[in-house]
């Protein structure tokens, strides 16, 4: 799905130049194709809804459908005999489109060689008792990166009325008997990420949510001192320890004002162990015996012993680097323009960085791994005056896999993982 959505974004970008510098109406269609195109454009003009749905088939490749069917028959029920899929584009509009705008919007969403596959209505019929349609898509309370890119492209081509564009995935399940609610829920759980996506009960009527943002309020540190921070720390789960409570109490008293709940929440994240690694500089006590060096001092001891060694960057910047050597990489002969590649002398140092991403991968393995890999790449590119990433590895330490028929002696089949975390097997497969 990620590849298909990425392809769609690339497609939208690739047609931008054509839209700006040519007439999109030059595309020609067969009579049957033209009828489908007219249906799509008409729906965009006359529907009048706040969110309009357009559909694209197929949404699953044959090999993906076969693989998913095998998993579902094993994990949910063998009563399911086939799975089909389609995409649904949920288009949020601030105002109805006119005919020219509708044609342009439909043209952006069509693929070049299969324009007839974009339709105004779904090809799936869920009225059959032995068929069920399950639809999953992004949560409505925040816009995805796909939507941000898509709406930006729409704005560039004059479609300012498009406020949001989110793709959802629709699955048609055919079975030997009607599926139970539990079976449908189990299937939905397999095909969506519950942290960033949700199950759609029907076509989205709106992207608006009923949730009201929590109010911003001040915490009475000036009046109640540390006790006020202790109370909000417990209420909001800020994970402030005694040092934090003392430090922030004094900080805001010195500033002569009360902090807001938003400020304290931000401080809890940006000054957290994940961001600052405070524990590395804390006292190291083993069995009641305080050690002379903390973890950071132990880690930096080899460098301090030989500071004139081959270290170029260490314990600063975004990554570390050691002295490299002269190389002859293939680089553009004319940087900044179309150019042939040729070997060129460079003096490059070697860089190594590590990224930890424990909790995000445990909650949402694939998106967590995406941001982890992105952070690792950012650290590389942001070191010194810039660098080139050559290779990367990923390692995961997880609990009991409990693979079917492959239970290992050290695994505990009775151990129950928290229901808000992904099971170890899913982490290894998705991440």
How would you describe this protein?
The chain is of the alpha+beta class. It contains 15 helices and 13 strands. The strands form four sheets. It has a six-stranded antiparallel beta sheet with strand order 3-1-2-5-4-6. Strands 9-10-13 form a three-stranded antiparallel beta sheet, with no helix packed on it. The two termini are 15 Å apart.
Total number of beta strands: 13
Order of helices and strands: HHEHEHEEHEHEHHHHHEEHEEEEEHHH
Which bin fits the share of residues in helices?
A: 25-40%
Arrangement of strands in the largest sheet: 3-1-2-5-4-6
DSSP helix count? 15
Q: Could you list the spans in which at least 5 consecutive residues all have pLDDT below 50?
A: 1-7, 9-37
> Biggest β-sheet: count, sense, barrel?
6 strands, antiparallel
Can you give the mean pLDDT? 84
Outline: globular
Rg of Cα set: 28 Å
Percent range for β-strand residues: 15-25%
Termini separation: 15 Å
Which secondary-structure class do the elements indicate? alpha+beta
């Amino acid at each position: 799905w990620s590849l298909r959505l990425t392809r769609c974004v690339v497609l939208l970008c690739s047609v931008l130049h054509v839209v700006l510098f040519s007439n999109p109406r030059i595309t020609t269609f067969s009579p049957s194709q033209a009828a489908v195109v007219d249906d799509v454009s008409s729906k965009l003009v006359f529907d009048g809804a706040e969110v309009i749905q357009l559909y694209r088939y197929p949404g699953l490749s044959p090999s993906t459908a076969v693989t998913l069917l095998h998993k579902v028959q094993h994990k949910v029920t063998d009563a399911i005999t086939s799975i089909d899929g389609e995409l649904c584009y949920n288009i949020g509009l601030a105002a109805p489109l006119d005919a020219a705008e509708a044609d342009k919007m439909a043209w952006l969403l069509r693929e070049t060689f299969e324009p007839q596959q974009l339709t105004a209505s779904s090809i799936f019929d869920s009225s059959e008792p032995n068929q069920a349609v399950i639809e999953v898509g992004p949560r409505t309370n925040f816009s995805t990166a796909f939507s941000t890119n898509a709406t930006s492209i729409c704005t560039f081509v004059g479609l300012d009325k498009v406020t949001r564009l989110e793709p959802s995935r629709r699955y048609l399940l055919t079975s030997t008997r009607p599926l139970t609610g539990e079976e449908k829920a189990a299937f939905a759980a397999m095909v969506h990420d519950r942290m960033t996506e949700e199950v759609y009960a029907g076509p989205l009527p709106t992207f608006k949510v009923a949730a009201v943002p929590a109010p911003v309020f001040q915490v009475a540190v000036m009046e109640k001192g540390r006790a006020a921070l202790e109370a909000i720390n417990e209420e909001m789960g800020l994970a402030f320890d005694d040092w934090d409570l003392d430090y922030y109490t004094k900080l805001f008293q010195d500033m002569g004002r009360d902090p807001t709940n938003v400020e304290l929440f931000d401080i809890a994240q940006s000054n957290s162990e994940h961001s600052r690694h405070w524990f590395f500089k804390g006292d190291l006590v083993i069995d009641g015996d305080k050690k002379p060096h903390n973890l950071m001092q132990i880690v930096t001891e080899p460098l301090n012993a030989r500071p004139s060694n081959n270290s170029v960057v260490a314990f600063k910047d975004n990554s570390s680097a050691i002295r490299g050597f002269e190389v002859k990489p293939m680089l553009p002969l004319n940087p900044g323009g179309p150019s042939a590649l040729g070997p060129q002398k460079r003096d490059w140092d070697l860089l190594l960085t590590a990224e930890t991403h424990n909790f995000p991968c445990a909650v949402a393995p694939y998106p967590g791994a995406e941001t982890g890999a992105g952070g690792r790449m950012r650290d590389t590119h942001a070191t010194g005056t810039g660098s080139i990433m050559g290779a990367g590895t990923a390692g995961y330490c997880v609990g009991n896999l409990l693979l079917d028929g492959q239970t290992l002696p050290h695994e505990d089949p009775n151990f129950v993982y928290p229901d808000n975390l992904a099971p170890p097997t899913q982490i290894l497969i998705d991440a």
